[in-house]
Each structure stands twice: as C-alpha cells, then as structure tokens.
Amino acid sequence: MDHTIVLIAKGTDTLAFLLKELRAYFEPYCKVIGFASHEQIPDLSGVSHVFITTRAPELYTIARQAVPETVPITVLNRFFELRKIKALMQIPPGTTVPVMNNSPVTAQEVIQNLLEVKIDHLNYVPFHPGSTFEERFRYAIIMSIPDVPLPPHVEVIDLGFRKISIHDLIDTGRKVGVPIEWERQYLSAFIVEMSELAKMLGTSYAEVQKLNSQLQSTFQAVKDPVIACNEDGLITFINDVAVELFCPHESVVIGKPYTILKEHGLLAPFFEQEGQEDALIAIDQRQFIVSSHSIRRSHEHLGFVCTLKDVTEIQRLRTQLALRGHTATYSFADIKGSSQPLLHAIELSKKMAKNNQTILLTGENGTGKELFAHAIHQHSLRKNGPFVAINCASLPENLLESELFGYEDGAFTGARKGGKPGLFEQADGGTIFLDEIGDISPAIQVKLLRVLQEKQVIRVGGTGILSVDCRVIAATNRNLEDAVRDGAFREDLFYRLAVLPIEIPALRERTSDIPLLIDDHLKQQGIRKSWSPEVMELLLAHDWRGNIRELKNVVDYAITVSEHPVIGIADLPKRLTERIFQKQSAAAAVPLEDERNLDILLGLYQYYLANKPVGRYQLAHTPVLQANGWTESALRNRLKQLEQLGLVRSGTTRQGTSITRDGIEMLRKYGKI
Ligand SMILES: Nc1ncnc2c1ncn2[C@@H]1O[C@H](COP(=O)(O)OP(=O)(O)OP(=O)(O)O)[C@@H](O)[C@H]1O
Known about the structure:
By secondary structure, this protein is of the alpha/beta class. The two termini are 27 Å apart.
C-alpha cells in the first residue's frame, strides 16, 4: 500500500461512520486513517489525499496545517442513503420542516443536498443546538442523533449519517490505484440502489437519472464508457463517453434497447449472459477491453453494467511488432531466458544455423518457434538474403498453393496479370519459414516434397521449371510422427523436413525464465511496474498451456487493468486466477470447501466488518474456532496456507491478520455471506 488517505471529521461519530465507508472502498488498495478535528493531528506530509467532512473553514485550516500545499484537500460530497428519502416524500408539500445537525454549516449543507436532488417540496429550516424548536413543527429531520431534545408529538425522520458520494470514491480511487473491477462492483451496487429508488418513487430510471445530479456527475467521473442494461436489455444508464462512442446521434438513449448501439452484436454477450470473460473488441478502429458485471439484489438479477477500457495504443504497438516484412527481425539476443532447456535449444540452433539443411522446429503453441526461425536465419550465412515467413494453417489450400509456388497469368479467374512469384521464389538466396507445417493438405505435401528434393518450383497454371535456392525452416506444434503413423502426413516429407530437428521447451519446463520474460516485455513497452510476490508465485505455479504468448497476454492485460505501480492478484485475468486457485486448492490439501477453512475466513470477515485487525491468539479464541479445537500454532500454519492462496493477509504483529477481497469472494462463493 503506497498511498494513504486521511479523513478529518468534526465529530467522532461521523468520523467512525465515514472511516468505515472509506475503508470498505479503499482498503486493501490504500491505507485510510482518520482524526476528529478536536484531536491532536500529527504531521501528515507524505499522505496522498485529505478529505474533510464539511465546508467549515476551520476544518480546512486544521487540515492544511497538517499537510504541505502539494497534498490535495477536498470536502467530501455526502448524500443520504436514497431509500431514506422515501419518508420525506410522504410529508405534505409546503410543510415547514427543521433540519437538525450539529452546526449551522452542516445543517445548511444537508438542506443544500436535498434541494440539489430536487426534493424541494418542503420548506426546510436549518436547526442546530441553540435554535428554538417552534410549537408548529410537526416533523423533524435528523441525521442519526437529534441534536436537541424533541417534543413527543413530533414525527422524526432519520436520514442517517450521510454517505460519501460515490463520485468522490471513484474519483479518488482512480488516483490511488483502486482496480477497475472493484470500482465496477461498487458502481453496480449503486445502480441497484438507484433502481430501487425509481421503483419506490414510481418513476422510471430516466426520471430518476434526470433528478439525480449526483448520479450524473458520478458517471461523468468515470472516464471510460459505462453502460447499464436491465434484464430486458433496455439501457438504464449510459455515460457521455459511451454515448459519444456508441450512439452520438441519438437524442434519447435511456429506456431504449441496447441494439440501438453501434456494434451492438459485439456487446450482446455482455448484456445477456453472466460470467462472460473480458474480451477485446474493436469499435471505430479503437480497441477496448470489455467486461461486464451482473447487477443483483439478493438473488434477483436486475441486469448488467458493462465497462470498456481503451487499449488502442497497446494494441497498435503489438501490431507494429507483428508486422514483419521479408526480413528477419529477431536474433538470438531477443530470445530471453537462462534456463538449461532453453540454453540447450539455443546452442543447438546456433550450430545448425551454419549449415544449409532443413530444420524442423517442434514445440507447443507460443513457445517461440518463429523467434528461433528468425534467429537461425540471422545467424546463418544467408543472413543478408530474404527471410520469408508463412503460416500454412492460415490459408485455404488453393490460396496457400499459389502463395507458396506462385501462379502464371490466367492461371485462375482473378489471377493477377503477368502472374505472381511465389514465396519460394521470393526467398531465393535466403530462408523460407513454413509455420504450422503439420496442417498442410496431402496435395501440398506432394508439391512441397518436390521442392525440397529438386530445389525447383513450377508456378500454378505454368509449365516452366524455376530453380530456387532457399533454406527451409519448418515448425509445428503437432507430433508429426503420430501424424505419419495415422497416415495424415507423408513419411518421405517428414524425413525431408526433420533433417535437423530442434525441440523448443515449453514454458512450464523453464519457469525460472518467467521473471526475465516479464521484465523484458515491460521494458520493450517502456512500462515500469512491479509484481507483488503473491502474483509472481501464481505465475510460477500456472501451467502456461499458451506458453510465452499466453504469458505476454496476461502481462498486457494486467498492465492495462492495473492503475497501481505494483500489480496485484486482482489485476490478473479472472480465468487465470480461477484456474490456479482451483489447481492449488486441489493440490494444497486445504480444500476450500473445508468448513474449517471457511470458519477461519468467516472469523476474519467479522473483524473486517468491525474494522479491527485481529491477532492469531484472539482469532483462535473466537467461540467457533475454539469449539473446533484450533490451537494458535495450528491456526498459524493454516493461515500461512490461506495466505499463499491469497485469501488472507498477515501484517506485522500489530497489524494482525485480515481477510482479502479474494477471501471475501470465497465466502460468497460458498454461501457463507
Ligand atoms: N524466449 C523468448 N524470449 C522473449 N520472447 C519470446 C521468447 N519466446 C517466445 N517469445 C515471444 O512469444 C510470442 C510467441 O512466440 P512465437 O510466435 O515465436 O511462438 P510459436 O512457437 O511460433 O507459436 P505458434 O506455434 O503458435 O506459431 C512472441 O511474441 C515471441 O516474441
């Protein structure tokens, strides 16, 4: 936790209430501490942000004395829980109602809040200690505590403590690295509240939205497109960024089906099915990661909130890297790693590079076979000649044939006038890299065999024989020997190709290279981020079926999603953490559904709710754990295991142990909370 947020409040009750709210949103991403204005406030230089609870100038002065000019101090925008407004709506219009608070400023602020959201049918008068309670008052609005004794005939409307505006939470959260996923959950809870208010007031979402200036500013504070739909696919909320992107010409969007949005087909899964994995989509030549979150009230499904994150720039860099001409762009220096299996493959490749024979690179997807092909060419005597690469699986048979061998004028309808040289001709004097060779059809296999044997090509539709001098490097992730045995691949071609076979090791056989690969990938993009030890542990434990390509994708995802210098577990794609957690929970002999583990998490959760850290001794002596025979030392070992799974976090002795968001999620998953 690099950031600290400070709250300075006027009264201790308000302080306790708001601290709890701030902590629920910001921890564990940043530390939140608070002081009542009458307390001795220490020097707070080094903190990220200070919130004060009212506009009262003396509060600002107190805060400014504690922090340097560079630290922003803002007044928390606060608002009552929307459902409490219901009682107010039942008071006859025009009634004079005192609004009670502990000072004239705060009483006026509450009135301001009410008027801002157009609850203006009453005649509000500020009321505070020292004001006189008039006989005619039938109602009184209080904030949790009546600040003066009230006569018995008065109907008291308790608006509770005013909550922190979600706008302030989101805005500050983005500055201190609260992940988007958490922000989205909060937002959807807020939308649930709004939808309930709409129902209560008998109005439509659109009207509530119009009424509620707070909601408007909340959505504008979110700089990425946000769209919410109800379960019938009707748009209930949309912010300006999303309107601009998806429907700039529509004047009314709320209440319309989401199918009015541009490219709605791409969004459809996110508005229709729960549990969609985040996906990359393109709109107006911009790339976005889309994710959706389901809106629920207890078990009732109310719809989805969908957020998009612009990743165009990252994608552009990636495409640039992928665009290669007829030259080899990588050398052995680009192949990162120092593990034994990798060094062995590099050493072998360097030796084989010098000779002119066909090389067959084998290995799983994304292990770096293409990278090796480039490097071998660069290391060979042909390095000044062309390097031509083709993915044999990416083209239909007839196209692949004409790409490889070229065609003559009029060879087929649409053939280019004058014909076209094939890749073998283009690779003359250099190297041709045939990726995914295991996927070529029997007809192409025959033609290829002839080129390899005779070093000659005949263009499609032609008769002339052309001699070519090029070295072939082929690659496959298939087991070609099995394919030969099954009759799917010609044996003679296999032996022609596999003159010099090189096996590229899978990433899980060289996990020690992972930190280096990550660093290198970040460095290439000029990004400086580090990884929390738990994340690194998870990455080392994963089985990386997609190898380095998958690793790079995970890193790209994490750096896109994370707004914090240290990447944490919450920044990893869900499917990865879920897979790892499933695997670990099976392997680690701490089955999560084990009631004993859930009891521990539940115990920690109670302390989390009460906002208190807890030590092992105290935890072991909670009634449930004590009844289950937990000793302090057994608990210590189990907590360590739960910490490895990212479900709890242990701080110093003073900080005690606390449950993490993943731990809370786990309790939810098993229906404990
Ligand atoms: N040792 C390595 N060091 C750095 N980057 C690597 C390494 N190996 C692979 N990569 C990167 O991983 C990605 C996948 O590599 P590459 O395309 O060469 O794999 P491949 O085995 O040819 O995959 P496929 O079989 O799916 O075609 C590329 O972005 C590549 O630059």
